[in-house]
Amino acid sequence: MKLSGKDRALLISHRLHRGLYERVSKRLGVDASFVNRVASGARKSDTIMRALLEELRRIQPGNVPRISLPQNCD
Prior knowledge:
The chain has four helices and no strands. It is mainly alpha-helical. Helix 2 (20-28) crosses helix 3. It is globular and about 25 Å long.
């Protein structure tokens, strides 16, 4: 699978997102360590790569709905 520069940047920054591998692995029914190996380039799977990119796009700041907190919350 050939990746664009934008997609490659998303994968490089994946370590900032806790639980990403677990969410993808549960959705696809595979082990999180396999998802990790695909993300790092040690293994190849177009299905897992697409799922990783989809999840990363979903959690990007511009795509996450804003939750307003009550005024008295700190």
